[in-house]
Amino acid sequence: MRENQKQWKKRLHEIIYEADTPAGKLFDVVLLIVILASILLVMLESVKSIDNKYHNFLNISEWVITILFTIEYIARIITVNKPIKYVTSFYGIIDLLSTIPKYISLFFGGIHALAALRALRLLRVFRILKLARYLGASNNLVRAIKASRAKISVFLFAVLIVAIILGTIMYLVEGEENGFTNIPRSVYWCIVTLTTVGFGDIAPQTPLGQFLASLVMILGYGIIAVPTGIVSAEYTSQTNTNKPQTPHLNSQSCANCLADKHQDGAKFCHKCGHPLH
Amino acid sequence: MRENQKQWKKRLHEIIYEADTPAGKLFDVVLLIVILASILLVMLESVKSIDNKYHNFLNISEWVITILFTIEYIARIITVNKPIKYVTSFYGIIDLLSTIPKYISLFFGGIHALAALRALRLLRVFRILKLARYLGASNNLVRAIKASRAKISVFLFAVLIVAIILGTIMYLVEGEENGFTNIPRSVYWCIVTLTTVGFGDIAPQTPLGQFLASLVMILGYGIIAVPTGIVSAEYTSQTNTNKPQTPHLNSQSCANCLADKHQDGAKFCHKCGHPLH
Amino acid sequence: MRENQKQWKKRLHEIIYEADTPAGKLFDVVLLIVILASILLVMLESVKSIDNKYHNFLNISEWVITILFTIEYIARIITVNKPIKYVTSFYGIIDLLSTIPKYISLFFGGIHALAALRALRLLRVFRILKLARYLGASNNLVRAIKASRAKISVFLFAVLIVAIILGTIMYLVEGEENGFTNIPRSVYWCIVTLTTVGFGDIAPQTPLGQFLASLVMILGYGIIAVPTGIVSAEYTSQTNTNKPQTPHLNSQSCANCLADKHQDGAKFCHKCGHPLH
Amino acid sequence: MRENQKQWKKRLHEIIYEADTPAGKLFDVVLLIVILASILLVMLESVKSIDNKYHNFLNISEWVITILFTIEYIARIITVNKPIKYVTSFYGIIDLLSTIPKYISLFFGGIHALAALRALRLLRVFRILKLARYLGASNNLVRAIKASRAKISVFLFAVLIVAIILGTIMYLVEGEENGFTNIPRSVYWCIVTLTTVGFGDIAPQTPLGQFLASLVMILGYGIIAVPTGIVSAEYTSQTNTNKPQTPHLNSQSCANCLADKHQDGAKFCHKCGHPLH
After folding, report:
1. Which of chain C's ends, N or C, has fewer CB atoms near its CB within 10 Å?
2. Per residue in B107-151, pLDDT tens?
3. How far is A149 from chain D, CA to nearest CA, in Å?
4. Do the chains contact at D154 and C144, CB–CB below 8 Å?
5. Cα D6 from Cα D12, distance rounded (Å)
6. Nearest CA of chain D to the CA of C58: how many Å?
7. Average confidence (pLDDT) over B53-78
């Protein structure tokens, strides 16, 4: 009997945590659809006219999704050998936060901020899309971005310093009567301009201000080249160097410690030695 | 007599479907001009002041173009061996849709939406511009874009997730009084900002909102580098690898099955074996 | 005596057309300053408040510059062996157009459009800046841009087709009440959006329109990568291939046929065989 | 006694000018925090509502920071062998300007422009972040930017000429009634558009103006590729060429002549021969 239960637990673990079996794939696809549907619900609820018309439908749908998530959350805890580790892991917390907003609203009414909690559900998509990794599409890309990160950070930091100094100068030149009411707002304008976004809610009106703004824009135009150049060069070198592909990894995940990235045909977890099934 | 007709059909096929003979080239150039003229007509018609003044002229011109397209459509059906295949092909449908709007308006009056049908005529330009391929200009480019497609899709998907989560947060921070009336609109603003378009019809007004917007913009500034880097690197590697040029292909198209990309001097269709002339 | 005059003519030719001698360099620098000053005049004149205050000063300055340009134009004609060729050359026409606006205004009064003629003077800067070529700064760059031109044209043409089709759809979706008053204006909006400029004077108001606009923006975001990738890759390959530098060219220009790009130490014009001095 | 004082001076020099010892690192981190805090103060002071509420707190904080900077400035002068050289160096002047604003305000009241002086303090961050160089993150990047500088300058200059000519034409086409009140403003609009910033405070209203604007935008879209391509290519070639890393440099700085970039294990200054400790 206990053996039987263990067998059943193993199968459930395979379905929930892996994507190698048809049932596992189906589970992932259904979960993906439920998550996207729940995000759509959050969006539609925020539209007054829709919420007024279909309030009941939206409310019931949210309850259905909440219950589905609750079942999934409990199943995940049951089938893992070390539940505490799952509950305190990044995705464990995301899963919990995705599930509770509707329960909270029972006690405190529909708090506005719960929408943000519910939007976090989107992060769960990334777990399912670990599948995407097996498409081999973004391996070099991820590596190139990682290699560029430090340089782009240094670069963006320099941009920030430029924005603060130029923002202060623009504040002095344009002044409050032209919308540059204080330095933070002026720095905000400077970032809007340097990044070539250009909302236009704040715009220089004095000739000197417009001249300085032109310099800022040409500067921004010139430096937008830098991060692009970095990624481009890194990616080129990644593509050239990493021709020998990484060994094919399957989507199994250890029932004991949740580690993934096991090689094809691996029999034991490479982290804790727990047998894989 | 029948032989004679077949000969005539063959010549017409050459003129309409190919660009190797002077008559074929002339046909393509005339067709290109007619298509562009018809697009110009659609545009001018939508301008109230012009339509009021020159309504009759525009109406007659549209009829002339419609009749020209009708003749061309019939000629294409006659000269092809398998008319059904042409009619149901992508360009066959485009050709039909390009021809019928004026006929439809006879029965239903000038429906507004017909303008969209007529704008589709522009897609026909691509068929004529298969000529462009022979300029050798965009071969590597097309290959680089194809090779980048998967990676750019993954990337744009990530951008979309970021936009939804940030959009929800901005909706909570700024609220309805500052133009972020609901989450879809807020996500729309987020996409406008991340892509550095920045219309400015919606813009954050609270200090916290402007701070978050600055982060979004700097993030957008940093990640605009990624797709550029991908295409750039792919294109570089395409240019390096594909030095041995593809054999020169002529503009013949099989009268039987419409297949093209026949090699120079090919006598038979590489797809159905039908003799090429 | 005639020999003497010829000698004098030769020296003047050297000063005006070349930049190898100190006098030639001085001439170029003075000319550059006069041109920039004249552009500044055109700009300041267009500012109402400045024109009202300093009208006389601006008027006299313009006359001084016009006379200087007249002298230069005559000197150029005199010192060249084939004046007709100079007068009908690109820079000959630019020089003439740069000189005459003030004379025209004598007969017809201050026509507004003369400002454009005067702004053309800026094009003369390029002739002087052929100097820049000798800095070796932009050789590979120019070559890369030339090599990319065809591909970028094909690409921009495709962008234009996308803009027309999407513009027509946006016109139908948003309609006149939201600022998309006709298709050309709608296409204009589409180009503004695809290029990530985003003025915001026209912006979609309906949810469907905003959804389509989001697609346009993400599309624009994705395809902005393409021309960048092209130039980047071309430039990389240019830099790799063209390591063996082009022979150093001096700034001499043939007195007979105006040809330049003579090699260092060349004694005769490589185009017409006329002796260089 | 004198020996003792010299010893003490040496240690202080090490702490202030170098980052190799724990004390030196601590000093840099504290200084960084004080600078950032002082910038935050400048920003908050400019916000009316905050200044009204916390005026006293901001005033006292500014005094504390001014006194800290004064002590640091004096310490820097004392510990350097050639104080005159430090005082007249770039960072010496920045340090002085960072210190004096509050003292000036004692005599002249809170002059508005002092905010700009105080914002200059941010430049001091760069000195501390010479640390960043040792992270090896931006070595190739800096070299690539330096190598690209000349080409990007030539390019930006060409952009400027285009902006002036197109700006003049737009001024003539659109005229004052559509916001293009004079040529400088029109050129400003042109730069805003070419750089794809697009504020939208000025936007073409006439069909011809919108058509020209479309050309400007597509042009801008095409040429934004150029500087990116330059940096990207330069950076790629830098990365390929400079594989043999530069020798590891430590953060020591000569007590005599302030020269830095000494090799690891260097015993004497490579510039003046003064012993390093």
Report:
1. N
2. 876 666 777 778 888 877 777 765 445 444 456 666 766 777 777
3. 9
4. no
5. 10
6. 15
7. 91
Question: Could you tell me which CATH number the domain at D2-130 has?
Answer: 1.20.120.350
If chain C, 277 residues long, is cut into consecutive pieces of 10 residues, what is the mean pLDDT of each piece?
Answer: 77 80 86 89 88 90 92 90 88 87 79 75 74 50 70 75 88 88 91 89 91 87 72 70 46 62 56 62
Q: pLDDT tens-digit profile of A95-151?
A: 898 888 888 888 876 666 777 778 888 877 777 766 445 444 456 666 766 777 777
Tokens matching residue C86: 């100079």
What is the spatial distance between Cα B56 and Cα A59, in angstroms, rounded to a whole number? 56
- Angle B218-A43-B224 from CA coordinates, rounded to 5°: 20
Verify whether the Cβ–Cβ distance B116 to C168 is below 8 Å. Answer: yes
Task: Report the first-to-last Cα separation within chain C, whole angstroms.
Answer: 20
Q: Residue B12 and residue B27: Cα distance in Å, rounded?
A: 10
* Contact of C249 with C263, CB cutoff 8 Å: yes
Query: How confident is the model over A33-83, as pLDDT tens digits?
Result: 998 898 898 888 888 888 899 989 998 999 999 999 999 999 999 888 888
Using a 10 angstrom Cβ sphere, with 0-12 exposed, 13-18 middle and 19 or more buried, the burial of residue A5 is exposed
Residue C10, token pair as written in the block? 């030769």
Our CA-based measurement puts residue B140 at a distance from the nearest CA of chain A, in whole angstroms, of 16
Question: What's chain C's average pLDDT?
Answer: 78
CATH architecture of A138-241: Orthogonal Bundle (1.10)
- The model's pLDDT over A261-271, given as tens digits with 9 standing for 90+, comes to 555 555 666 56
- Give the side-chain half-sphere CA count within 13 A for A164: 23
Decide: A163 and A193 in contact? Cβ < 8 Å: no
At position D189, the amino acid (one-letter code) is W
**Rounded Cα–Cα distance for residues A109 and D117 (Å):** 52
Report the distance separating Cα A164 and Cα B96, nearest Å. Answer: 59
Q: Tell me how far apart the alpha carbons of residues D96 and A212 are, in angstroms, rounded to a whole number.
A: 26
Question: What are the extents of the domains in chain B?
Answer: 2-130, 138-241
Under a CB-based contact definition with an 8 Å cutoff, are residues A48 and A121 in contact? no
Q: Which residues of C touch B (CB under 8 A)?
A: 150-151, 153-155, 161, 164-165, 168-169, 171-172, 181-184, 186-187, 193, 196-200, 203, 207, 210-211, 213-214, 217-218, 220-222, 224-226, 228-230, 232-233, 236-237
**Amino acid identity of D58?**
L
Long-range contacts of C80-89 (CB under 8 A, 24+ apart): C80/C13, C80/C17, C80/C255, C80/C258, C81/C255, C81/C256, C81/C257, C81/C274, C82/C256, C82/C257, C82/C258, C85/C257, C85/C258, C86/C258, C89/C258
The residues that bridge with C199 in the sheet, in sequence order, are none
Contact C138 D151 (CB under 8 A): yes
Nearest chain A residue to B206 by CA: give it: A185
Number of inter-chain CB pairs under 8 A, A vs D: 141
**Nearest residue of D to residue B44, measured between CA atoms:** D207
Q: What are phi and psi of A126, to 5 degrees?
A: -60, -35
Instruction: Please list every residue in chain C whose beta carbon sits closer than 8 Å to the beta carbon of residue B196.
Output: 196, 198, 221
Name the closest residue on chain A to residue B221, using Cα atoms.
A195
- DSSP per residue, A116-142: HHHHTTHHHHHHHTHHHHHTTSSHHHH
Q: Each residue of B211-248: b (16+ CB within 10 Å) or e?
A: bbbbebbbbbbbbbbbbbbbbbbbbbbbbeeeeeeeee
Q: Is the pLDDT of residue D93 over 70?
A: yes
Q: Measured between beta carbons, which residues in chain A are less than 8 angstroms from residue B199?
A: 199
Residue of A32, A43, A182 for testing the chain B interface, max B β-carbons within 10 Å: A43
Nearest Cβ partner for A236 among D144, D229, D236:
D236
